[in-house]
Amino acid sequence: MLLPITAAMTAVFVAIHLYIGRLRWLDVLPRHRWLSFSGGVAVGYVFLHLLPDLALHQRAFSNELGLSDTLAESMVYSLALLGLVAFYALERKVRLSRAKSRAKGKGDQYEDHLEWVHASSYAALNLLIGYLLLHREEGGWASLTLYFGAMALHFMTVDHGMREDHREAYERRGRWVISAAVAAGWLLGALVTVPQVGIGFLFAFLAGGIVLNTLKEELPQERESRLWPFLTGTGLYAALMLAGEFIA
Q1: How many CA atoms lie within 13 A of 9 on its CB side?
Q2: Deepest of 84, 165, 167, 191, by most Cβ within 10 A of its Cβ?
Q3: What is the dihedral sign for C-alpha 121, 127, 132, 135?
Q4: How is the chain split into domains, by residue range?
Q5: Cα–Cα distance, 47 to 139 (Å, whole number)
Q6: pLDDT at 171
Q7: Are 97 and 117 spatial neighbours (Cβ–Cβ below 8 Å)?
């Protein structure tokens, strides 16, 4: 039963990547409202799922690698910090490249190699997201549904932003790369079980990228933000998660 359900969820993720440009209601709705709502959901996901999952991977490091609890904790959060710094450095290089291109009168674009590095970084995140549909630390249908909802909303906002910033590159190549990655992640999860320590290393590193993307893409700029949609998104996600805990 789990495979067909998660396959359908993966198909929804792929559809979001491929057809985000056809979701006209995203352009009709005031962007600052749904972006603020999405930011609230994303913050709820980071604090109520992502960070607790890091703690679970810390225990796996301690048990399977024979590390002390303190050393395992330091390793997990150092990997997350390294991931955040790496993704930040990439974003900074992209912004600087685009600024140089505009200064030279070549338009809002960046070097071809950065386009592939940028797409590859999102593909790595998507590979893990697809895999975790089948191999999350926390089981149960309520947890799976909340994970799916948070990731779908995350994809909608991030893809919408990527398409606005790099429309030609996204339409021509980017959307296909990240769509293939999330499908490949699900397929990998259906065929094999990666050792928990290996997933822990990858998850901790990419967690830093997820946190950065949440802050960069989903929390609106000060002039665009709306407090009540943001609080609604955070409160709704937290309430659903707590309800799921009680049901489980």
Answers
A1: 26
A2: 84
A3: negative
A4: 2-17+34-247
A5: 18
A6: 75
A7: no
